[in-house]
C-alpha cells in the first residue's frame, strides 16, 4: 500500500483521531468514535510500517497513534469515574435492553393475578383452602392493614427491602434455569389475586388497592424487571445465535448482573415508600401518586440515558481486553 495514497484516503480520519486525543473529556458517542478511529489508524500504521517505515507519513501517523494510545491507557480519574459510568451508561442501558421483555412479563403477570382473583372470588371452595370464614374475615378486616402498621416504620422498611432485594437477585442469578423465575412469578401472581379476592369478599377492596398500590407499583415493577433479566439469561444459553453458548451466556450475565445491583438500590427506595408512605394517613391519591411518580422516574431515567447509550453503540459488558475475545460458533 502506497503511504501517500493511504494518507489521501484516510487522512481526514487521522486528523479526527488527533483532535479527539487532545480532548480531556468525551461523551459516550465520541468515546466510541475515538476507539473505532484508533483501531483503524493502528491498522493503517501497520501497513505503512511494512512498506515504508521511514516515510513522513509513517512518522506522522505514528505520533497520532502514540498520542491516542496514551489517551486510552491513561490512569482513570478514580473510582468515581467507574461509578459514573455505571449509573450513566451500564445500568440504564441494561434496563433499556429489557424494555420489551418487561412489557410481556408485566402483562402476563397482571393477567394471571386478575384471573386468579376472579377464579377465587367466584369459587368459595377455593377461598376455603386459605382458611375458614373467620380466618378470612380477620385477614380482610384487620391483618391486611395491620401488617403495614404493626412494626416501626424504619424497621419495616428495612425488612421489606432485604426480602424484595433477595427475591430480585435470585430471579436474576437463577433465571438461567428458566423454571425458577416462571414458578416464582406464577406464585406471586396467584398470591396477589387470592389476597384481593379475600379482601373483596368482605367489601375491603378499597383497602386492598389503597395499601398495595403506593409501594406495589414500583416494587412489583422491579421484581418483574429482575424476572426479565433472569429469563434473558435463560434464552442466552437456549438460543445463543452464532456464538458459543458459554460465550453468549457469559456476555449476557456480565451485562445483566448490572441490573441486579441497580434493583437493590431501587427496591431500597421502594421499601421506604412501603415503610413510611403506605401506612401514613395521607390522602390516598397522594400516596398512589408518589408510587407512580417514582416508577415514572425510573422509566424516564432508563429510557433517556439507556436509549442514548444504545444509539451510540455502547455496551454494558466489559471491554474485550477485560472480558476475553468471543469465538463465533461454526459447528455445534
From TrEMBL:
Transmembrane feature ranges: 102-120, 165-188, 208-235, 256-273, 285-305
Keyword tRNA-binding: no
Keyword field contains Transmembrane helix: yes
Keywords, alphabetical: Membrane, Transmembrane, Transmembrane helix
Pfam families (UniProt xref): SpoIIM
The name this protein goes by in its record: Stage II sporulation protein M
Amino acid at each position: 500500500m502506497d503511504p501517500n495514497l493511504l494518507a489521501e484516503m484516510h487522512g481526514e480520519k487521522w486528523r479526527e483521531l488527533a483532535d479527539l486525543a487532545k480532548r480531556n473529556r468525551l461523551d459516550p458517542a465520541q468515546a466510541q468514535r475515538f476507539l473505532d478511529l484508533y483501531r483503524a489508524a493502528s491498522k493503517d500504521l501497520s501497513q505503512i510500517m511494512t512498506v515504508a517505515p521511514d516515510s513522513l507519513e509513517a512518522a506522522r501517523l505514528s505520533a497520532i497513534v502514540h498520542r491516542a494510545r496514551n489517551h486510552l491507557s491513561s490512569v482513570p480519574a478514580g473510582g468515581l469515574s467507574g461509578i459514573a459510568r455505571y449509573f450513566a451508561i451500564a445500568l440504564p442501558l441494561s434496563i433499556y435492553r429489557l424494555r420489551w421483555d418487561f412489557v410481556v412479563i408485566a402483562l402476563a403477570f397482571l393477567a394471571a393475578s386478575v384471573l386468579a382473583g376472579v377464579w377465587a372470588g367466584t369459587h368459595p371452595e377455593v377461598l376455603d383452602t386459605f382458611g375458614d370464614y373467620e380466618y378470612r374475615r380477620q385477614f380482610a378486616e384487620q391483618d391486611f392493614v395491620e401488617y403495614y402498621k404493626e412494626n416501626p416504620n424504619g424497621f419495616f422498611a428495612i425488612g421489606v427491602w432485604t426480602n424484595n432485594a433477595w427475591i430480585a437477585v435470585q430471579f436474576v442469578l437463577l433465571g438461567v434455569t428458566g423454571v425458577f423465575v416462571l414458578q416464582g412469578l406464577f406464585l406471586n401472581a396467584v398470591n396477589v389475586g387470592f389476597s384481593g379476592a379475600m379482601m373483596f369478599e368482605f367489601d375491603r377492596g378499597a383497602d386492598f388497592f389503597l395499601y398495595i398500590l403506593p409501594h406495589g407499583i414500583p416494587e412489583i415493577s422491579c421484581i418483574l424487571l429482575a424476572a426479565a433479566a433472569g429469563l434473558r439469561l435463560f434464552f442466552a444459553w437456549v438460543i445463543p445465535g452464532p456464538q458459543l453458548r458459554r460465550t453468549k451466556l457469559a456476555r449476557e450475565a456480565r451485562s445483566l448482573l448490572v441490573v441486579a445491583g441497580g434493583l437493590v438500590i431501587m427496591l431500597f427506595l421502594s421499601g421506604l415508600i412501603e415503610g413510611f408512605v403506605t401506612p401514613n394517613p395521607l390522602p390516598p391519591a397522594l400516596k398512589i401518586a408518589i408510587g407512580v411518580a417514582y416508577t415514572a422516574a425510573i422509566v424516564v431515567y432508563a429510557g433517556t440515558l439507556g436509549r442514548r447509550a444504545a444509539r451510540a453503540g455502547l455496551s454494558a459488558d466489559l471491554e474485550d481486553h477485560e472480558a476475553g475475545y468471543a469465538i463465533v460458533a461454526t459447528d455445534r
